[in-house]
Specification:
Low-confidence stretches: 1-38
Strand content: 5-15%
Structural class: alpha/beta
CATH class of the largest domain: Alpha Beta
Distance between the termini: 85 Å
CATH architecture of the largest domain: 3-Layer(aba) Sandwich
Number of domains: 2
CATH superfamily of the largest domain: Type I PLP-dependent aspartate aminotransferase-like (Major domain)
Strand order of the largest sheet: 2-8-7-6-5-3-4
Mean pLDDT: 90
Number of helices: 12
Number of strands: 15
Largest sheet: 7 strands, mixed
Radius of gyration: 23 Å
Helix content: 25-40%
Length: about 425
């Protein structure tokens, strides 16, 4: 009996024939029976210094007081081991395409668990911006339509809609944030019945502001529009339930709070909108069935957006990262890290620094400005081995507390900020 390549993959998957990593005994047990990297978490003891029991999993704590997770979040050992195992197999006994696709399916299923969705609503793209580009192109925006964003978004969004404004006459409306926040009430001033899409960064990279997705979804839907979220700064830091938030589409790269690597980005499309968002390119992986005379039937769920081989090494890393996050619990991470952010905010306020993150904000990111010598500030942080982001010539500081950080590290940063000397007279 002869098989097409696709029929073989489908039959192998159904029969459970996906090959695990065939590597040396020294690397045994790195891959489970379905081809998925799975070291599990160490059985760690929680303590006041390590409330989530995760610090030994993160080598970064041996090098720095690392508070720069809004930029890049360090991965735990389990994620690094998954990547190493994948590349060892690539060198010694490469995994079959069927095995890698089986792990991709497992990742989609676990990501769906993380957000309260179904696997049919989750695909894998290569970058956060790919999702919004796909959504914007599918909506066939044209003259007379408007898109509403705010000034706390990432630059990719402005570039996308400025381009559509020039090419198609789409109007881009920008909500100006007040005191670091952009509320649904402020969006309501610009959203009308010609609005096709409201787009926000769920958690802003600019100041850590966490948007009210439910309020924005209700506003958009009341005008027949959709809500898109860039979720890279929120996913893995804050719980997401797509049913509760009402968000229609979102994408998230995985190298920040999701603890993964580069080159993969889960993409969510609400099930009833899958027919609206069409794939923008064709490839062998979005084909569901081969028909006679070189005709094809595409998948009718989110698999249709996965058109070609993704970065499988990063897929395996994401698989291990999702296992880790589901084990620790994102709600536990939120409680821990947001409390650290509030501790930092209270200390900075007492020291007289200007906070750009609004009070009562629900994310783990704090951004503030200072009036001290930027070079002295930079040196003080380097000498204390503190990693964070300095912006605006060093006058603005962004801090992000991750699951492996603790109160002692926040207090050490506050000791440093309290010792900064005032800037001398300016010429």
């Amino acid at each position: 009996m002869s098989y097409t390549r696709r029929q073989f993959l489908e039959s192998a998957s159904a029969a459970g024939l996906m090959a695990p990593l065939g590597i040396s005994a020294g690397n045994a047990a790195l891959i489970d029976g379905e081809g998925a990297a799975s070291n599990g978490r160490a059985n760690l003891v929680q303590s006041a210094d390590d409330p989530l029991g995760v610090r030994p999993d993160f080598p970064v704590i041996e090098e720095h007081i690392y508070l720069d997770s809004p930029y890049i979040t360090p991965s735990p050992r389990q994620v690094i081991d998954a990547g190493d195992a994948f590349w060892q197999a690539k060198a010694r006994n490469p995994i079959s395409l069927g095995g890698m696709l089986a792990e991709t399916t497992r990742v989609r299923e676990n990501f769906a668990r993380l957000i309260g969705a179904t696997a049919a609503e989750v695909s894998i793209l290569d970058a956060t911006s790919a999702g919004e580009n796909l959504v914007a192109r599918s909506l066939d925006l044209r003259s007379g339509d408007n898109v509403v964003v705010d000034d706390l978004h990432y630059e990719t969004t402005y570039s996308l809609y400025r381009g559509l404004a020039e090419a198609r006459g789409v109007e881009l409306r920008i909500v100006r944030s007040g005191d670091g926040a952009a509320t649904p009430e402020e969006f309501a001033e610009l959203v009308d019945d010609a609005t096709r899409l409201v787009s926000v960064a769920w958690v802003s990279h600019r100041n850590g502001y966490a948007h009210d997705l439910r309020g924005l979804a209700d506003l958009a839907h009341a005008h027949g529009a959709y809500l898109y979220a860039d979720a890279i700064q929120g996913m893995g830091m804050l719980p997401m339930d797509v049913g509760e938030t009402g968000v229609d589409f979102f994408t998230s790269g995985t190298y920040k709070w999701l603890l993964g690597g580069y080159g993969v980005a889960p993409f969510f499309v609400r099930s009833e909108l899958l027919d609206i968002i069409e794939p923008d390119r064709a490839g062998s992986l979005n084909i569901a069935r081969e028909l006679p005379d070189f005709h094809f039937e595409l998948h009718d769920d989110a698999r249709k957006y996965l058109y070609a081989t993704p970065a499988f090494g990063a897929v395996y890393q994401l698989g291990a990262a999702l296992d880790y996050l589901l084990d620790v619990g994102v709600a536990n991470i939120e409680r821990h890290t947001v409390a650290l952010a509030r501790r930092l905010r209270d200390g900075l306020t007492a020291q007289g620094h200007r906070l750009l993150t609004p009070p009562g904000n629900g994310s783990a990111i704090v951004v503030f400005e200072h009036d001290h010598d930027p070079d002295a500030v930079r040196r003080s942080l380097e000498e204390a081995a503190v990693r964070l982001t300095l912006r605006e010539g060093g006058a603005q500081v962004r801090v992000g507390a991750a699951l492996f950080n603790n109160e002692r590290e926040i207090d050490r940063l506050l000791e440093i900020t309290d010792g900064w000397e005032a800037r001398g007279p300016q010429p």
